[in-house]
Design brief:
homodimer; Arc Repressor Mutant, subunit A; alpha+beta; 4-stranded antiparallel sheet; Jelly Rolls; DNA-binding
Chain lengths: ~230, ~230
DNA sequence: CGACTGGTTGACGAGGGTCAAGGACCGTGG
DNA sequence: CCACGGTCCTTGACCCTCGTCAACCAGTCG
């Protein structure tokens, strides 16, 4: 199940605010260990597309967005990661997506090489294979959403996904702004906002605030997600 | 590198034409072996969403589409698989996508359990992990296409992908009809047809026939894919 | 209190979907 | 050899969903 091995409890240095340079695992801190706890501030970059990959991250707290950018700035968020999730796997040694902290985030970074080395149990490779296959499945589901669902269906599916993953039936808290939801769903933030209003007007959800949503009629919401 | 082990050379029975019932690996044929060669006719189903999973398939010849359906018939193709590709992995024992032969297809089916059992080398698990991570990366790239690219960019990206994967610089042969391309790109077949015409009118491609495309200006095509 | 970030709402237009007609290209059979 | 049917493809006309642009509102932090 992958639990951190020898963990150095680093003095948790205060992180600079975005968009300044994010902290990376440094030679000195990872000298004797394969797992390093790290903190990231709101909107700071955990790793960037094109950067050398070498670590796998497991979230302790906070939410992370993983995304790809086009040269002109259009962005697609491929996943949100919640506490317990892992991200940062790469086939080769280059990241082909970037990862950013949506709010303050605590992660544990594992050195990729150590995980696949002979010393590590093969059960870990199975674990990793499992997580990767699950990620692939979720991404395929998301393809269907982006390729074939309309705006209302997309938002409904998003809310259902969040309710399921956070385990919060009512009074769901959304960690991310409308802009991130839009870039996850392949929409604009205005359209996301309009669809929230539509679900609200239909009596399916209640907006306590922009980030705090109560699902009033789960069956109807599920019906809308098609 | 995963090559078939003891292969029984089955009498290659003539396949029924679609949409009749496709052949599945049967008990009698897999009794002593973990790999079975199979043939599928045009448009026949290799496996369906919701069906029990138990085999991994490697394509010998032909092209396979992997897709998901919404209840009302909207379809998203998540990938096309060419000879040498493998597909059919599942985390649990149920297929969450379906796979169909686009034309006549020859595959080798491997029993999933045998591949992960103690007898199989751990290098195979690494191989599988690699293929899955590559699939995940390609799917993430496709998310960006579906979520953020316009119709012309999508078709350009598709043609570039096909040129790269088939290794055919000029005179690319497309195995699939417009409808499948559309369902892969999240468009309608009419829009796909119009974008083909647009690329043709711009002098970037030449349409020998609907399925036979010559790329006249690869740099310009790459520029259009954004 | 003011500045900033984030969210909502409206007016308008464009990109791509829908509907429809017709053309091209097969393989089959008379 | 040609006619026929089926599948696939193209093109046009129209329309709808969602993106764009803009103004305004709400909450928060100094």
């Amino acid at each position: 199940m992958l639990t951190p091995l020898p963990v150095m409890d680093l003095p948790q240095t205060q992180m600079p605010l975005a968009p300044s340079v994010p902290p990376k695992p440094r030679e000195e801190t990872e000298f004797h260990t394969s797992s390093v706890p790290l903190n990231f501030a709101r909107n700071s970059e955990i790793f960037a597309e094109g950067e050398a990959a070498g670590y796998v991250y497991k979230i302790v707290s906070g939410v992370v967005r993983v995304s790809k950018l086009l040269p002109d700035g259009r962005r697609q968020i491929s996943a949100f990661h919640l506490p317990g999730d892992m991200f940062g796997f790469e086939v080769d040694d280059v990241h082909h997506v970037s990862a950013e902290a949506i709010g303050p985030v605590k992660v544990i970074a594992y050195k990729w090489q150590n995980l696949l080395s002979a010393t590590s149990s093969s059960s870990f490779v199975h674990e990793l294979l499992n997580r990767t296959m699950i990620g692939l499945r979720q991404t395929q589901d998301h393809l269907l959403l982006l390729g074939r669902k309309n705006a209302l269906e997309r938002l409904a599916a998003f809310l259902i996904e969040m309710v399921r993953r956070t385990g919060s039936e009512q009074s769901l808290h959304l960690a991310m702004p409308r802009h991130d939801i839009a870039d996850y769903l392949g929409l604009t933030l205005e359209t996301v906002s309009r669809m929230f209003a539509e679900l609200k007007d239909a009596g399916i959800i209640k907006l306590e605030s922009a980030r705090q949503v109560s699902v009033l009629d789960m069956p109807k919401l599920e019906a809308m997600a098609t």
